[in-house]
Amino acid sequence: MSSARVRTLAVVSERVVRGRVKFFRSEEGWGGIESDEAPGDVWVHFSSIEGDGFRELVEGEEVEFRYEAAQQDSWRYRATWVRRLDHRDR
Q1: What pTM does this model have?
Q2: Mind listing the domains of the chain with CATH numbers?
Q3: Of the chain's two ends, which shows fewer C-beta atoms within 10 Å, N or C?
């Protein structure tokens, strides 16, 4: 049985919080966000990133996001919407 299954537990944040990208694995399309406004690190999938086409985040990049409680492997929270705050050249 795959450990990659996702189980949603409850919505945690309807409000937008700010954080910083801890890491992002572009080749796999996922990463982590850390924030003092969230109860723990938050898992993020490229499909949650605002924008069209190929989407990725950069380590250290400032973002704002919404999240929910969801079990994703060892992660307890999952981003449901992410928007970059930094506007660096990509």
Answers
A1: 0.80
A2: 11-84 (2.40.50.140)
A3: N
Strands 6-25, 75-84: pairing is unpaired
The answer to whether residues 38 and 67 touch, using CB atoms and an 8 Å cutoff, is yes
CA distance 20 to 39: 14
Structure tokens at 89: 């050249």
Q: What is the pLDDT of residues 52-82, one digit of tens each?
A: 999 999 999 999 999 999 988 899 999 999 9
Between CA 61 and CA 42 the distance in angstroms is 14
Reported as a single tens digit per residue, the pLDDT across 7-33 is: 544 555 678 999 999 999 999 999 999
- The two tokens of residue 77 are 């929270």
Task: Judge whether 83 and 13 are in contact, CB under 8 Å.
Answer: no
Q: Which residues contact 48 (CB under 8 A, 6 or more apart)?
A: 65, 78, 79, 80, 81, 82
